[in-house]
């Protein structure tokens, strides 16, 4: 049922969202996209959550769009055109919510992250992957070039690597994905959740407001000309420096004690 597609667990300021459709390898069906979107909207307004972990139930992180659902849409008079247009628009809107979310988002990837599933991982701020995980934008193997997944992928890995993945349909094993910048950390399968949790706890221990302004500035300055990037981030630094908790953090560092953050 739709209400079971996402499972949420909150502990210590960390929200863990689990895509819960293991029988479909957590495919991004219309219903799944709607549920992820709704949960991200709730998190955007949630002041108590400092970090988000996104993971998949079962043996895969996410296998991309639901091909059976997409094929069924071809039975309409327009051969599915309106359905496909809405699907890709909704999916793109959902992906764009991830960098806009105030909290850092960590993708915890086991098994495979393919096509739009790879896009989902790449849209997160960081990725922790099992050592045997694999990443692919392999739609070309079935005649569908992964054009929308390409957007997120090309913002994480060098263009030549992305183009090779997109045109060959070949998978990157987790160690190679880490080498090219798609993955931040790898871990043995049995230690994947603990490794992800440890990273999340590190982020959650920082001043929440500083991480929030930092994430916003990180994405806002990307792609700007150098002078505009410095102007934007300089203004963010001034705002940050004027906070009471930043003053306290610097005083605590100089006095060699833990900060007393409000």
UniProtKB/TrEMBL annotation:
It comes from the Bacteria. May play a role in fatty acid biosynthesis and insulin sensitivity. Pfam families: ECH_1 (PF00378). SUPFAM superfamilies: ClpP/crotonase (SSF52096). Belongs to the enoyl-CoA hydratase/isomerase family. PANTHER family: ENOYL-COA HYDRATASE DOMAIN-CONTAINING PROTEIN 3, MITOCHONDRIAL, PTHR43602. InterPro entries: ClpP/crotonase-like_dom_sf, Enoyl-CoA_hydra/iso, Enoyl-CoA_hydra_C, Mitochondrial_ECH-domain. One of its GO terms (molecular function) is enoyl-CoA hydratase activity. It comes from Fuscovulum ytuae. The keyword S-adenosyl-L-methionine does not apply. Keywords: Fatty acid metabolism, Lipid metabolism, Lyase, Transit peptide. Transmembrane segments: none annotated. This is Enoyl-CoA hydratase domain-containing protein 3, mitochondrial. The keyword Transit peptide applies.
């Amino acid at each position: 049922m739709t209400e079971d597609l996402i499972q949420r667990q909150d502990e210590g300021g960390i929200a863990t969202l689990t895509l819960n459709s293991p029988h479909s390898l957590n495919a991004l069906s219309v219903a799944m996209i709607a549920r992820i979107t709704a949960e991200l909207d709730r998190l955007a307004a949630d002041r108590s959550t400092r970090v988000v972990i996104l993971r998949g139930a079962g043996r895969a992180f996410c296998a991309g769009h639901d091909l059976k659902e997409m094929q069924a849409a071809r039975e309409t008079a327009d051969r599915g055109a309106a359905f496909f247009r809405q699907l890709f628009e909704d999916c793109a809107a959902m992906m764009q919510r991830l960098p806009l979310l105030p909290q850092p988002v960590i993708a915890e990837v086991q098994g495979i992250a393919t096509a739009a599933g790879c896009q989902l991982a790449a849209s997160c701020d960081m990725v922790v992957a099992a050592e045997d995980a694999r990443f692919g934008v392999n739609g070309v193997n079935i005649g569908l070039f992964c054009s929308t997944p390409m957007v997120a992928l090309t913002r994480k890995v060098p263009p030549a690597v992305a183009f090779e993945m997109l045109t060959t349909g070949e998978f990157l094993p987790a160690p190679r994905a880490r080498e090219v910048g798609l993955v931040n950390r790898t871990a043995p399968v049995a230690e994947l959740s603990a490794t992800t949790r440890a990273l999340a706890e590190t982020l959650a221990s920082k001043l929440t407001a500083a991480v929030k302004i930092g994430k916003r500035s990180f994405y806002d300055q990307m792609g700007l000309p150098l002078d505009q990037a410095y102007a934007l981030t300089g203004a963010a630094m001034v705002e940050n420096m004027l906070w009471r908790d930043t003053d306290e953090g610097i005083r605590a560092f100089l006095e060699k004690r833990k900060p007393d953050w409000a």
